[in-house]
Amino acid sequence: MFQSIHFNAKPRAVTNASKPEVVEKLKQIVGAENVLVEPEKVEPYGADAVKEKFPPEAVVFPETTAQMCEILKLANEYLFPVTARGGGVGYTGGAVPVDGGIVIGTDRMNKIIEINAADLYVICQPGLTTYALQQAVEKHGLLFPPDPASYKDSFIGGNIAENAGGMRTPKYGVTKHSVLGLEVVTATGEIIRTGGKTVKNVVGFDLTGLMCGSEGLLGIITEATLKLLPMPEATATVRASFKSMEAACRVLTKFTPEGLLPMAMEVVDKNCIGAIEQNFAFGLSKDANAILIVAVDGSMEEVSRNAQTIERILQENGGFDILRSRTSEEEDKLWDVRRAISPSLMKYGTLKLNEDVVVPRSKVPELISKIEDIGRQHKTFVANFGHAGDGNIHVNFMCDRDDPESIARARQCVKETFQLSVDLGGSISGEHGIGYVKAPYLNMAIDAPTLEVMKGIKKVFDPNGILNPGKMFV
User: Fold this and answer.
1) Which of 16, 94, 178, 229 measures 20 to 30 Å from 467, CA to CA?
2) Integer CA distances (angstroms), 337 to 121, 319, 358, in order
3) β-strand 102-105 against 35-36: which pairing, if any?
């Protein structure tokens, strides 16, 4: 079985959440039908994409902000851990109850409250999927830019908590760049409101920005006001093959002098290409050691002009087998190669250590070259792909889940890759967050005084340490 695992699973923790009077009070708050305690029912809520299981003692599904407040007040009274959970598709264990207690599922808080086309915002609850939100605003001719790969399963609340990225980041930024305001319930059960409905707002501290990427350690989001944009008239995608990853990645800085800001720039290495071709037979060139996919959006005229310029730049810089989409169907086919990567990599091992390091865009060629050296040094197969346009590369070290030595070598590769990313002016996570998986490496990216400030902020928001314990700070 193909898995992505970092640590050994722990036995189920037992806290005050298991007390009969606590379970009864939870049922009184949200209704008995919205509280799960049976082991077989809570087990699915004890893991994310990492696949390691930490079953909670109960799963609770509130429907209103008032119910969320009551749950957190109860947690403070009885001092049991609380972990908020959206779609459960993260890669660092952020939504996993490693210290037991309860999981709060936001599935029932999935309403769109308002779509305002005049002022370009939408107000929604955290349990809405990114896809459902995008579909709803598109009917009004509007765009919600963040597009994580898991957009059909990930929840808005989780995207904000993890500050999720996606392929459109080079032009539109990450999730925090689309968040105007939030309603948050703190660990003590108080409601705070940050930001508002306007793009400009410099009243008080930027608590909205603080909540974005806080991984559920500071509060639980119950409502979000998100920025929208007019839907672009057209999009186009250009795909090219290259003789090497270095050649493909060196093109990334060639668009700016031409006045171009592509919407997406994705790179795929030779190992991914081999796996894709073996599984799907797209007919990719046998001479391709890398693929670069570049997308633009805007008016029809602008897109046509920019796509032609991109074709020229790719060709002038060593690109071959260059294809440009002229219909939406052709565009989907060009992107199929990128979508096929993850399911194809299973041919290289039964265990995947999937990381998402980030460096300045100009450093991507050096990053990938040295990652390949790290893999060779430790006799570990590595496949690289991802969001080259914003310097965020998904590094996949493959090994055998039944071979401890193989796993140990892969983990050493991960550690050295994190240090390499920091040395190149980047960091250990671009969009997956820290959770518990990357917590042991946090001090590589953040110095001690800064970490102490973060811990102090955590203490202010969560004096009893009940929110998502066991994450980030270990």
Assistant:
1) 178
2) 33, 17, 22
3) unpaired
End-to-end distance of the chain based on CA atoms, in angstroms? 30
What b/e string do you get for 184-202 counting C-beta neighbours within 10 Å, with b at 16 or more?
bbbbbbeeeebbeeeeeee
**CATH of span 234-342:** 3.30.70.2190
The CATH number of domain 349-433 is 3.30.70.2740: yes
Q: Give the architecture-level CATH label for domain 112-230.
A: 2-Layer Sandwich (3.30)
pLDDT tens digits, one per residue of 297-306: 999 999 999 9
Q: Which residues are registered as beta bridge partners of 258? A: none
In this prediction, residue 119 has a pLDDT band, given cuts at 50, 70 and 90, of very high
What is the model's pTM?
0.94
CA dist 239 → 249, 311, 351 (Å):
13, 9, 30
Q: CA nearest 303: which of 239, 363, 235, 242?
A: 235
User: What is the rounded CA–CA span in Å between residue 161 and residue 432?
Assistant: 10
Answer yes or no: same fold for 112-230 and 349-433.
no
Strands (E), 119-250: 121-124, 142-143, 179-186, 191-195, 219-227, 229-230, 234-242
**CB distance 182 to 211 below 8 Å:** yes
The full set of domain ranges for the chain reads 112-230, 234-342, 349-433
Beta pairing, strands 381-387 & 264-269: antiparallel
Query: Tell me: the pLDDT tens digits for 262-296?
Result: 999 999 999 999 999 999 999 999 999 999 999 99
